[in-house]
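Narrative of activities, Objective 1.

The group set out to show that a structural description can be obtained from nothing but a protein's sequence at a throughput compatible with the screening campaign. Below is one input-output pair from the validation batch, recorded exactly as produced.
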Amino acid sequence: MKALFKDISAYNRGQSKADKAICDRLREEIGKALPKAESRIWHGSPVWFLEGNPIVGYHKLKDCVRLLFWSGQSFGEEGLAVEGTFKAAEARYTEAGQIKATLLRKWLAKSKKIQWDYKNLVRRKGVLERLA
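Output recorded for this entry:
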């Protein structure tokens, strides 16, 4: 059964030592790049939102920590793999040393500028519209 976490700090503390290091590093970089974003546990994972729209989050999978950008397929950047059927893209990490700060910061900068409207996806019956 999946543990329920009240906040991102508790989520990170609930990980193994290696995964906690990844999560802590991601949280630090995301916080610096998106200081005005709302962050919270959403569907069991840490997620950052701009004006209610999910932008970036991470989640512990069986063998790695996945960093997910909801609009990442539109960034035109290396290092992100297609995820799902919408516009999301991901990077996966098994150790904190794999996180390339320069590349992560580039992705985070693009996440503010390039957004698809996931906030209203249900209301629009699965049709995404570009916001920024």
